[in-house]
Amino acid sequence: MAEADLLHGFGGQLMRGAATTVQLALASLAVGTLLGAGGCWLQLSTRTAPRTVGYAYAAVIRSVPDLLLVFAVFFGGAMTLATLTGRHVEVDAFLAGAIALGLSFGAYASEIARGALLSVPDAQREAAKTLGLSRAQTMWTVTLPQAARAALAPFGNQTIVLLKQTSIVSIVGCDEVMRKAAEASGATREPFTMYLAAACIYLALTGIMSLGLEWTERRVSRLDTR
Question: Which residue has the higher pLDDT, 223 or 215?
Fold first, then answer.
């Protein structure tokens, strides 16, 4: 039996929802990576005010459920735009989801990056200084490569979590795979079949990401042994 027949003609819609899920995860990853780098930089600042802001960002965002972040960005954004423009403005669900999930991912990424940087022994930086390397050269050639290796696994795992978290954006109307499954479930009155199909899609996507992460870790390990 063809996939379209098996899913009562909703197979194509679920695939389009899967494509939107991947796009949403990538957009959130880009936003979150930038926020994570900025948050890490603030946390490692020698000044009290920036360091406080960095720690506050990570602490507050990690304490709030991601669903509330989606609601805050989606409805709060609409309210803010309405106040600024004097008329009702519909916030794009995809954009709101990317920002909200990016905020969440960035808070965790900042902690991962900070821990990875602090894991590099001070003795190696001192040795680089003894060899005449500048502070910038030490950062790029000694500290960052080792920190990147240390952060690779937790960063990859958090990315897989991010992919699954995209499902909550369906509640504000983003046409990702969970919303498509809900629509198909209502139309066919077969929720188990449609949500099982959505689960298989998530399983395939996370499986591909896990294989990619394992391949990257093996490549990095080989480089370390050379």
Answer: 215
